């Protein structure tokens, strides 16, 4: 059934409603965000600019740093803006987009960590065949597969969540749009959303364990 929502925006209730704490939390999370950006940005620049680091381990580490930057950017800028605003609103499709990229990047990072574990396993247990097994073409294929799988996994969440029915309540008891608080604001179809996402999660587990 297509979405028939009469709600065009949601109000993110955030971390706390105590106004005196908002400036302090803004400074705290801004500092955390800048540290994340600077640290991962430095890793990316070093890996790209240093030829001696053009190896499978650092290739995947560069992917991980890129994911960390994007993953933090999905939620933190909006949260920082809300700390300084009295109207903590986000549009319906803005909420769906945030949910999609949060799960896309989060699931991609989980799968990438599995690939990195496999890379270290080969390096330790099969050192003589390491360069043959983990050649550049295989590494590129693994990275592309991880990103595509994460995107498709998140797409299920986004499509099913966008089909929920909303009427009246537009409060989200969280500082960003995630499935559980988003579904709690819905009137119905939460069971089908949960069942569908759980089914796909179970389908991805054997794939991740294969590494």
TrEMBL record:
The membrane topology noted for this protein in its Swiss-Prot or TrEMBL record is: Multi-pass membrane protein
Q: List the InterPro entries hit by this protein, alphabetically.
A: GPCR_Rhodpsn, GPCR_Rhodpsn_7TM, Olfact_rcpt, Olfactory_GPCR
Official protein name in the record: Olfactory receptor
Which one of the record's GO molecular function terms can you name? olfactory receptor activity
One Gene Ontology term, aspect cellular component: plasma membrane
Provide this UniProt record's keywords sorted from A to Z: Cell membrane, G-protein coupled receptor, Membrane, Olfaction, Receptor, Sensory transduction, Transducer, Transmembrane, Transmembrane helix
Kindly give the PROSITE patterns that the UniProt entry links to this protein: G_PROTEIN_RECEP_F1_1, G_PROTEIN_RECEP_F1_2
* Residue ranges annotated for the G-protein coupled receptors family 1 profile domain, each copy included: 39-211
**Function text:** Putative odorant or sperm cell receptor.
Q: Name one Pfam family in it.
A: 7tm_4
Where in or outside the cell is it found? Cell membrane
- Spans traversing the lipid bilayer: 24-48, 60-80, 100-118, 130-156
Its main subcellular localisation, reduced to a broad class, is: membrane
């Amino acid at each position: 059934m297509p979405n028939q929502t009469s709600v065009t925006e949601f109000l993110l209730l955030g971390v706390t409603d105590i106004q005196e704490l908002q400036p302090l939390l803004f400074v705290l999370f801004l500092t955390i965000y800048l540290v994340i950006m600077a640290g991962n940005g430095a890793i990316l620049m070093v890996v790209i600019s240093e030829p001696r680091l053009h190896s499978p381990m650092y290739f995947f580490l560069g992917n991980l740093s890129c994911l960390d930057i994007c993953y933090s950017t999905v939620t933190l800028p909006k949260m920082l803006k809300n700390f300084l605003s009295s109207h903590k609103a986000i549009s319906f499709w803005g909420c769906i987009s945030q949910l999609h990229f949060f799960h896309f990047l989060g699931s991609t990072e989980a799968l990438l960590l599995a690939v990195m574990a496999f890379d270290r396993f080969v390096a330790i247990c099969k050192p003589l065949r390491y360069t043959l097994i983990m050649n550049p073409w295989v590494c590129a294929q693994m990275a592309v597969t991880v990103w595509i799988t994460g995107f498709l996994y998140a797409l299920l969440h986004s499509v099913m969540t966008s089909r929920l029915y909303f009427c009246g309540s537009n409060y989200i008891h969280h500082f960003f749009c995630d499935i559980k608080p988003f579904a709690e604001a819905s009137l119905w179809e939460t069971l089908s959303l949960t069942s569908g996402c759980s089914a796909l999660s179970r389908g991805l587990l054997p794939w991740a364990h294969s590494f």
